[in-house]
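Sequence decides. Our protein:
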Amino acid sequence: MQTISLFSLWLPIVLSAVAVFFASAAIWMVIKWHDSDWSQLPGENAVRTALSGTPPGDYTLPYAMSNAARASEDWQAKCKEGPNAMLTVLPAGLPAMGKQLGLWFVYCLAVSLLVAYVLHLTVPTGVDYLRVFRIASVVGFLAYAGGAVPGSIWFGHGWGRTFKDVADGLLYGLLTAGVFGWLWP
């Protein structure tokens, strides 16, 4: 079995990252099927006022620092009474879309590099498109969608949102696999 040099896969690495980047742009900016993933908070202005000055970070409501604090009757009563929330506070100002898009593209490149690495270890030169496609699609799917389900299990993300994230990951994995299969040496 003649292995492929990882460096020789630079073109499918870059092109698959570009394909996923533009597919995600179409999903978010043209199709907009994620627009319904969030809802307006009742009393939004009062909540904004209450949170004013809160440093960026991740918070829980009610908060308990330890297992002992979570065992307290006070904390358990607050949980039963509600509301219970996990909240991420972002820095004030408009979102830094350039930075976020740049980081997303770097992530797409990292996933494509991971796919290339697995293919480099498992697939020899000259194999058919379908063999490359099957392995690349599974690795790509796991990389793009694997983290979505725990968000619903542990952090209360809506299952509809998670389904869409998994569907996105499937599309991104298939695009990645298609490019690697097409350009496989």
